[in-house]
Design brief:
The protein is mainly beta. The chain contains 6 helices and 34 strands. The strands form 7 sheets. A 7-stranded mixed sheet has the order 12-11-10-14-19-16-17, with no helix packed on it. Strands 3-4-9-8-6 form a 5-stranded mixed sheet. It binds CU-O-CU linkage and copper (II) ion (CU) (2 copies).
């Protein structure tokens, strides 16, 4: 009850800041009166219900959208799903989005992966109360790629996303279109989420209480595009599948069950320079992967499944290993929730309703049935994109060490916890400047080291290197081959005891932006910080 009051108070604060002097705020956030949008959309977040399982409908929170101006294809609705409409934009478009909050609590929307002005980035201090509207205006500067949107009110992001507030945002540009990649109905989205249902078919959030919060929420059912036991009838053609991990804390080790390599063409920030084939793709919360599934050589009547292969997600530190013996997590130990004694189920996670499926447990996600023969003319391009100078190493860039740590019951970022408007001296950067961050995963709770996906707003960065512990028991070994470090990223997975060096070119917009762990429960608990971009 206290917590609830506090959160409503927070929203009210956001509101009062926003309404005290709207014109001043408008100016401070760098908006101009002269904005002429090419595309104008209305987006609403509201309660609703969908038929997910047989029996009772599931109450959800859902985005719905409408095109007010511009191409009607800018919004694609997903029927019978909590998934918000897929927003399709083109690079260079000026976009206005009128967001209406029809929820019973404060909210604000963030366009994950896009480089937009402070006023359009969905910072929690801009959260609006029930019934209010927030107008976003931005120009699409990003490369073509798979981005997404979700709420970002402080302390409530995990719960709002869990209730269904998730949508894809796909950007196209000339370079992408010139490649003749699968398009139209052959360009598919694949949004991975996990949920726990109660006996009345309702989403149960954090049923495991504080331990769920500390470890991040893990569900017991996999939903793909909001559907349980997803089955796709496809033809003998090539498909572009845009994978998004929209789960609170689950990492996926994605592979085809018949040993077909994953053919990867894009990551968070758009197309790779050239396609790469990997046995599997490691996808952390909020990360995206574009893959091509070429079924042209397959026989009709056959099946291929997208699965998550087993891996080790966390580890027990040596000194406490004896005490916490049962909590190795991942595929090996499988005891979750503070050693509550729930064993992991063998096979896929869609079986028994006896608690969360551990991170790292094997899962079946999509069953692709090849049902029709259709001619395919698809040829995989050998080159996809050119990164140019932006990818080059900047030798003299300032280096900052950012520890991912756990102390006194808190997950910390650079030794600090979130504070709405607080910015430390080393969190101030010049617009458009390049920095190197060394993200070191040093902390663990109760002897348990976790992987953390670190996300930075308003930028796509480059992973320079990873340093992992020298011993063979490092959990990174079980996912290493699937990490996509050759593409632009806005989120990097930092495995237990690993240090990842990234090179970041910060946004050229000035203002207050966020970086945080994208395990949504960690973010809500304060494993998040601001950085301030000041004029160059
Ligand atoms: Cu996807 Cu700050 O978030
Ligand atoms: Cu983001
Ligand atoms: Cu975390």
């Amino acid at each position: 009850m206290k917590r609830r009051d506090m959160l409503f108070g927070l929203g009210a604060l956001g509101l009062s800041v926003a309404h005290r002097d709207p014109v001043a705020l408008f100016r401070r956030l760098g908006r101009s009166d002269a904005f002429e949008p090419d595309v104008e959309l209305a987006l609403e977040a509201a309660a609703g219900d969908v038929q997910i399982r047989s029996g009772a409908r599931t109450r959800v929170w859902k985005f719905s959208g409408r095109v007010l101006k511009g191409p009607t294809t800018s919004i694609q609705t997903h029927v019978d799903s909590f998934l918000g409409p897929t927003i399709r934009l083109r690079k260079g478009q000026k976009v206005r989005i009128r967001f209406r909050n029809a929820l019973p609590e404060p909210s604000i929307v963030h366009w994950h992966g896009l480089d937009v002005p402070e006023a359009a980035d969905g910072h929690p201090h801009l959260a609006i109360g029930p019934g209010a509207e927030y107008v976003y205006e931005f120009e699409v500067l990003n490369r073509a790629g798979t981005y997404w949107y979700h709420p970002h009110p402080h302390g409530r992001t995990g719960s709002q996303v869990y209730q269904g507030l998730v949508g894809m945002l796909i950007v196209s540009d000339e370079a992408d279109e010139a490649l003749a990649l699968p398009r139209g109905a052959d360009d598919m989205v694949c949004v991975l989420t996990d949920r726990t249902f109660d006996a009345q078919n309702q989403f149960a959030y954090l049923s495991g209480g504080m331990m769920d919060r500390m470890h991040g929420l893990l569900g017991d059912r996999m939903l793909v595009n909001g559907t349980e036991n997803a089955t796709w009838p496809l033809a003998t053609r090539a498909y572009r599948i845009r994978l998004l991990n929209a789960s609170s804390s689950r990492v996926y080790k994605l592979a085809w069950d018949d040993g077909t390599p994953m053919t990867l063409i894009g990551s968070d920030g758009g197309l790779l320079e050239r396609p790469i084939e990997q046995p599997f793709v490691t996808l952390a919360p909020s990360q995206r992967a574009d893959v091509i599934l070429d079924l042209s050589q397959r026989a009709t009547g056959t099946t291929v499944r997208l699965r998550s292969a087993p891996f080790t997600a966390s580890e027990v530190s040596i000194d406490e290993g004896g005490m916490m013996g049962g909590m190795t997590g991942g595929m090996t130990g499988g005891m979750m929730g503070g050693g509550s004694g729930r064993g992991m189920r063998g096979g896929m996670g869609n079986a028994a309703p006896d608690g969360p499926v551990p991170n790292g447990a094997p899962l079946t996600l999509v069953t692709v049935n090849i049902t029709r023969r259709e001619a395919s003319t698809f040829r995989m391009p050998t080159r996809l994109a050119s990164y140019g100078d932006a990818w080059a190493e900047v030798p003299n860039a300032p280096v900052r060490r950012v520890a991912l740590d756990f102390r006194a019951g808190q997950w910390l970022l650079g030794g600090k916890s979130y504070d709405m408007l607080d910015v430390a001296p080393d969190e101030i950067v010049r617009a458009g400047s390049t920095h190197i961050w060394e993200i070191a995963n040093v902390g663990g709770m109760m002897g348990r080291q976790m992987a953390h996906p670190l996300h930075i707003h308003g930028t796509q960065f480059r992973v320079l290197s990873r340093t992992r512990p020298a011993d063979a028991t490092s959990p990174e070994n079980s996912v290493r081959e699937g990490l996509i470090d050759s593409g632009w990223r806005d989120t990097v997975l930092v495995m237990p005891r690993d240090t990842v060096r990234i090179q970041i070119r910060f946004t050229s917009y000035t203002g207050l932006f966020l970086y945080h762990c994208h395990i949504l429960e960690h973010e809500d608990m304060g494993m998040m910080r601001n950085f301030r971009v000041v004029s160059a």
